[in-house]
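Deliverable D5.2: sample structural annotation.
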Amino acid sequence: MSPMEQTAAATMIAQPVSPQVVSISIIIPALNEEKMIGRCLESLTKLVFARDRFEVLVIDNGSRDRTLAIADSFKDRLNLKVLQEAGVRISALRNLGARAATGDILAFLDADCLAPADWLDQMLVLAPANGAGVLGAHYLLPEDSSWVGRTWHRYQEAPKSGEVSHVPAGDLIMRREDFLKLGGFDETIQTNEDYELCERARKAGMDVRAFPRIGVIHLGTAQSLRVFFRKQAWHGTHVIKVFLRDVFRSHNRKAVFFAAYTLLSLLTVAAGVVWALAWHGPWLLPAAGCAALCLPPTALAVRHVLSSGRYSDFFPLFALYLTYGIARAKALLSIKNFV
């Protein structure tokens, strides 16, 4: 080796190699998720994206099961950090993760979701610059889904693409700069925080877009009417609270009106039954209430089966819309909406 080559080689050795910069931070809130967190993190180990280009932040809300131990077991396979903040709402967990993140892009993922292998690659293509707004996708179904999961997904989630009212927080992507500029998720509400963030993003001039190709599999998809009712009642907890902030421009007004109409119909049925039993009045009022209660689910089911040609879906759709309406009517009565 010539003296010149030796000098060049020494110079190269002397210069420190700059570490690869993390470009994406995956933020996963968790509370007692021992049954799901392992499958979620396992899916992230299979991402084709370079390991040193993304980080994973699990934000625990005081789990009392094996969630933390399972998460820690992935530290040798992922660039993983575990943070803890007990007794706060899920919005606060996500915000904590965003503040601790070092990536330019924030990818919010729920602990009961599985990411596809090209999830992060697609993300970089779709969010190339600041001001890209809110990106995401509505959930994909587990393979063994029941008629409840399949039917609701077919008509309520699968068709959503392009400009949408919101994307779920379990698969929501934003540039970190844009997210912090908006102030993050609203920590005063328990649910509907993803919709509320999308509303603020739109008012700030940002787009809200869904791209099915970055969809994640939601293991927590409701597979029975009982679970579907419980989830819809919980998701509706703060819908009216968010709606009342901007009644005339709110994108969730249809859901609120449907819930209010269902609640009024149920009250009519209840009042009619009491009247008929206590004062021997006619049963016309409760009958009218039942007819009114069934009208929107019937109309929605008919519209969907006529457009799809899947006429056998009428009764499953009717049952789901009726259950949805009753669950959201129950949520309207929650004192949390008005406190």
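Annotation notes: The radius of gyration is 24 Å. The first helix runs from residue 3 to 14.
The annotation will be released with the project's public dataset once the embargo ends.
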